[in-house]
Amino acid sequence: MSLVLVVQVVLVVAAVALVAPVLVSVRGSADARRRLARARTASGEVVAVTDVGGQAVPTVRYHVGSERLETTPRTPRPSARYLVAQPVDVRYDPQDPAWMTLEAVPGDARVPGARHAVASGVVAGVLLVAAAFLQLLR
């Protein structure tokens, strides 16, 4: 196997490795947007606060109908501080009530964006162009 072919394969694999997480993130963002579009509001209460990577992540208890749920937000957390026993507004998916996010004020529930999507796409494109250029040199 020639060195040029090995380099081409490495470039293509690197491009795929850059693009795959972006595609997964974009899909997750679309799912969160759909869930928030149909979301309903409920009152909840913070029952615990855990430090996850330097961020305070609240565990919230809320009720949907007769069902009592206790979970953590599924979308990026608002930059708020949470205290145990603090009342919070929950936006939950009526098709999957265990999926929820918090609102500090109405309408601020955030949809996760595709992190570094443009940069990853550009770098992946450059890698694929380099692989194609090497093919032309063969």
Describe the structure.
Residues 44-98 form the DUF3592 domain. This is DUF3592 domain-containing protein. Keywords: Membrane, Transmembrane, Transmembrane helix. InterPro entries: DUF3592 (IPR021994). This protein is of the alpha+beta class and 138 residues long. The protein has two domains: 1-39 and 111-138; 40-108. 41% of the residues lie in helices and 31% in strands. The protein contains two helices and five strands; from the N terminus they run H-E-E-E-E-E-H. The chain has a five-stranded antiparallel β-sheet with strand order 3-2-1-4-5, with no helix packed on it. 18% of the residues are buried.
Number of domains: 2
* Strand order within the widest beta sheet: 3-2-1-4-5
Estimate what percentage of residues fall within beta strands. 25-35%
How would the global form be characterised? elongated
Q: Considering DSSP H and I runs of 4 or more, what fraction of the residues is helical?
A: 40-55%
Give a brief rundown of this model:
This is DUF3592 domain-containing protein. With 138 residues, the chain is α+β, with helices and mostly antiparallel strands.
Question: How is this fold's topology laid out?
Answer:
Blueprint lengths: L2 H35 L2 E13 L2 E10 L2 E5 L15 E7 L2 E8 L13 H21 L1
Antiparallel strand pairs: 1-2, 1-4, 2-3, 4-5
Helix pairs in contact: 1-2
List keywords for this structure.
138 residues; transmembrane helix; transmembrane; DUF3592 domain-containing protein
